[in-house]
Design a protein that fits this description.
Layout lengths: L1 H21 L2 H57 L2 H75 L4 H69 L7
């Protein structure tokens, strides 16, 4: 029995948790107001029926009292006329009406008391309804603010956890890698350009040196030519 009781308690607790999580304060407040309106309507119908019953018993009581008084007059009139038989019958009817009047009076008083209690209950219900209706708007506004604030907080906390936030950070890292690769590529190009310039400078230097050597060689040959002319023998005159 202990195991089954624990299982039942666990099931009931789980169901209650699920129900609590599904309850929307705004929806439930509106539902409670509708339930109270239905309850007030039912009480109003019951009060109306009780008031009608109260009026009916009062009317029957008053009619019985009126008939008892009428028979009392008839008894006196019959005795005055010497009609003892009629007086006896009128007296018997009078006693029956008086008994009925007592019964209807008791029923009327009971019905009247019940109707008064029901009126008071109806008044209390209406007052409570008006209070709840006035408070409902405040509670609904507070619930809406709390709901919105919760959504904002969850959105802020979930930026780093949800796929959109992770994707955003991943793209940010990719952009940083692209920028780093672009910087490295620019530095390599600058290095290559510097190497090319250095090699070109060396080639130009070699060309300049070679041109200088060729020019010097040509100049040397040019300087040697007049000396060779002077060395030529002069022709003998005949």
């Amino acid at each position: 029995m202990g195991i089954f009781k624990r299982l039942r308690d666990l099931t009931v607790a789980s169901v209650n948790d699920v129900i609590d999580s599904m309850e929307d304060p705004v929806v439930m407040l509106n539902q409670y107001m509708r339930d109270m309106e239905v309850e007030i309507g039912q009480v109003e119908v019951s009060v109306a029926r009780q008031v009608a019953l109260e009026k009916k018993f009062r009317q029957q009581w008053e009619e019985a009292v009126t008939l008892a008084e009428k028979r009392d007059r008839q008894v006196k009139l019959a005795l005055a006329e010497g009609e003892d038989f009629l007086a006896r019958r009128a007296l018997a009817d009078k006693k029956q009406y008086e008994q009925r009047a007592q019964e209807y009076e008791a029923l009327y008083l009971t019905a009247s008391e019940a109707a008064q209690q029901m009126r008071e209950k109806l008044t209390e219900l209406k007052e409570e309804f008006y209070k709840m209706r006035a408070k409902r708007f405040t509670l609904m506004a507070r619930a809406q603010v709390a709901k919105t604030q919760k959504q904002v907080n969850q959105a802020i906390v979930g930026i780093g956890n949800q796929s959109a936030g992770k994707g955003f950070h991943r793209m940010e890292e990719k952009v940083l890698r692209m920028e780093a690769e672009a910087n490295l590529s620019g530095q390599w190009r600058q290095t290559q350009a510097g190497l090319e310039q250095s090699l070109e400078s060396l080639e130009n230097k070699d060309l300049d040196e070679e041109l200088a050597q060729i020019k010097a060689s040509l100049q040397a040959k040019k300087d040697e030519r007049p000396a060779k002319k002077d060395e030529q023998p002069t022709k003998v005159q005949e």
